[in-house]
């Protein structure tokens, strides 16, 4: 059901009215002003009905409580109705300055009150200190609002309290709550992963039949795993989730297989950007990776780690602080993968580089070898289909039998042949062009071939 933006905006404005009343009551109770004996929880929030607004749908689907609702409203306020926060600029007459406990910051480019984590803490705990645990949970990276980047607590100088950071709603989620445009987590330091997609279909996947049988087992788990775990009570015997390792030379189909497993089962596949995850600073690698796992734990995603030995490589003897740091990272990653309820696929060129502590805990270890002549023939045919025509003098069966190339290399050769053909103003690839393109591909690996 499409909800008009006007209804979504009206719902957010109603939330701001409720937030304003809550803030006024909290301050009233805190400063013992007239009406202080009342409590902000007695102020009824706007009613929530399915499909009344995207905000209502989010609240109902995620089953957020009143504290979480207050947090989301506070984070949205500067973008929706900044004036509802102006009362937090109040002056403490005893010291002739603002109230430290209100938190918040100001900026030259924005004259309004910008809430911080401390602001949320004040609203929730000012008159009920025991509710600090609620705030700790809402501001933790494991909370769904934070994990899915709906809200964010910006980092601060290490010398400052963590809750001194700005507490804000993301622009992408704000846009979604108004317009309904679907959002995806964006590749950033706060989410070092990006969506992995392919225009190909499952039928385009060409693998040795033994490899395909193993891949089909993963596909079956994606289709029936939930039934096995909950209805067949397999959850009483094994941990949730599925863990697989794809190993083999580049271009043999590891990444494509991961993308097609997601596409064919209706799941998003997120490829973790290792360059943004791995950090030389102690604790940062774990922190970066935790953001991905925390977000994915609320989704039915497949997490794909390419060149995984950079993160999951063999541990060394702890002879230095760097060794201990690396081993600590490895142990942490192993635990997160074991506890992750979804599907994790690690890809590496060399199985020997992988730590055995990881590999023995994986349900599937699949070797992607250089395709055989039959698979290569199919790959050649698939590659040139609907792109280029082949000269009658080219016998693909002979080409497939003679040259040991991967699917990735065949795509590179196709690109080179297509460029040569279009430069001639033709669509037919000549035999000499194909053979020269094959030779160029082999030269990348310092290999030479004889062309007849």
TrEMBL record:
The keyword Nucleotidyltransferase does not apply. Its EC number is 3.4.24.-. One of its GO terms (biological process) is proteolysis. GO terms for molecular function: ATP binding; ATP hydrolysis activity; metallopeptidase activity. Pfam families: AAA. Keywords: ATP-binding, Hydrolase, Metalloprotease, Nucleotide-binding, Protease. The keyword ATP-binding applies. Gene3D superfamilies: P-loop containing nucleotide triphosphate hydrolases. Residues 240-372 form the AAA+ ATPase domain. InterPro entries: 26S_Proteasome_ATPase, AAA+_ATPase, ATPase_AAA_core, P-loop_NTPase. SUPFAM superfamilies: P-loop containing nucleoside triphosphate hydrolases. PANTHER family: 26S PROTEASOME REGULATORY SUBUNIT. Belongs to the AAA ATPase family. This is ATP-dependent zinc metalloprotease FtsH 3. It comes from Vibrio spartinae. The lineage of its organism: Bacteria, Pseudomonadati, Pseudomonadota, Gammaproteobacteria, Vibrionales.
């Amino acid at each position: 059901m499409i909800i008009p933006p006007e209804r979504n905006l009206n719902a957010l404005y109603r939330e701001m009215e409720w937030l304003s009343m809550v803030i006024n009551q909290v301050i009233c109770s805190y400063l013992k002003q007239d009406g202080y004996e009342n409590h902000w929880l007695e102020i009824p929030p706007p009613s929530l009905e399915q499909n009344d607004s995207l905000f209502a749908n989010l609240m109902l689907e995620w089953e957020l409580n009143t504290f979480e609702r207050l947090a989301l409203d506070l984070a949205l306020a500067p973008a929706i109705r900044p004036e509802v926060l102006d009362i937090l600029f109040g002056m403490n007459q005893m010291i002739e300055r603002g109230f430290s406990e209100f938190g918040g910051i100001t900026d030259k480019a924005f004259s309004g009150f910008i809430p911080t984590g401390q602001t949320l803490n004040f609203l929730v705990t000012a008159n009920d200190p025991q509710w600090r645990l609620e705030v700790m949970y809402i501001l933790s990276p494991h909370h769904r609002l934070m994990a899915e980047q709906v809200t964010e607590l910006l980092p601060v100088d290490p010398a400052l309290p963590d809750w001194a950071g700005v507490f804000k709603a993301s622009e992408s989620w704000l846009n979604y709550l108004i317009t309904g445009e679907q959002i995806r987590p964006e590749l950033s330091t706060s989410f070092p992963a990006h969506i992995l997609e392919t225009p190909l279909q499952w039928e385009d996947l060409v693998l040795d039949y033994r490899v395909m049988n193993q891949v089909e087992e993963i596909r079956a788990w994606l289709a029936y795993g939930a039934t096995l775990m909950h209805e067949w009570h397999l959850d009483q015997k094994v941990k949730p989730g599925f863990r697989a390792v794809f190993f083999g030379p580049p271009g043999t189909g590891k990444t494509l297989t991961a993308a097609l497993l997601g596409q064919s089962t209706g799941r998003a596949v997120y490829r973790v950007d290792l360059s943004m995850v791995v950090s030389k600073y102690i604790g940062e690698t774990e922190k970066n990776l935790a953001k991905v796992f925390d977000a994915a734990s609320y989704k039915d995603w497949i997490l794909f780690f390419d060149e995984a030995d950079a993160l999951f490589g063999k541990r060394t003897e702890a002879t230095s602080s760097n060794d201990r740091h690396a081993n600590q990272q490895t142990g942490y990653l192993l635990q997160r993968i074991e506890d992750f309820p979804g599907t994790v696929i690690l890809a590496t060129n060399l199985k020997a580089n992988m730590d055995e502590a990881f590999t023995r805990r994986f349900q599937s270890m699949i070797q992607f070898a250089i395709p055989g002549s039959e698979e290569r023939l199919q790959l050649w045919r698939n590659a040139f289909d609907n792109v280029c025509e082949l000269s009658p003098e080219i016998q693909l069966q002979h080409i497939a039998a003679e040259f040991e190339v991967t699917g990735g290399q065949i795509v590179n050769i196709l690109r080179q042949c297509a460029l040569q053909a279009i430069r001639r103003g033709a669509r037919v690839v000549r035999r000499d062009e194909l053979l020269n393109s094959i030779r160029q591909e082999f030269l990348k690996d310092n290999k030479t071939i004889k062309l007849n």
